[in-house]
Input
Amino acid sequence: MSTGANSGKVLLVEGSNDEHVVRHIWKSRHNSSQSFEILDKQGYNTLLDSITTELVAIERETVGILIDANDGGCAIVSWSLWSFWGYKIVFFGLTVSF
Output
């Protein structure tokens, strides 16, 4: 697992499978090295708990969040979850893109 301590661009993922999928897709689609760090948060709840910390990290330019839809009802919960985070992120003075 990477720490992301010195990276301005990070992608937060739930687990190592997600990390490997992203790396594979990047490698198959781009002819360049990855320009961001992937942070394996080792679980859905851990990822959610880390969002605020990652957003306010002083060296961060970009924070991407990848949550897969393998949990029951995730699609229904996702919109309210991301609406909540969208408002919270705007409160921090940051830009939100979906």
Q: What stands out?
A: The mean pLDDT is 75. The chain has three helices and three strands. Residues 5 and 57 are 9 Å apart (CA to CA). Strands lie at 9-13, 37-40, 62-66.
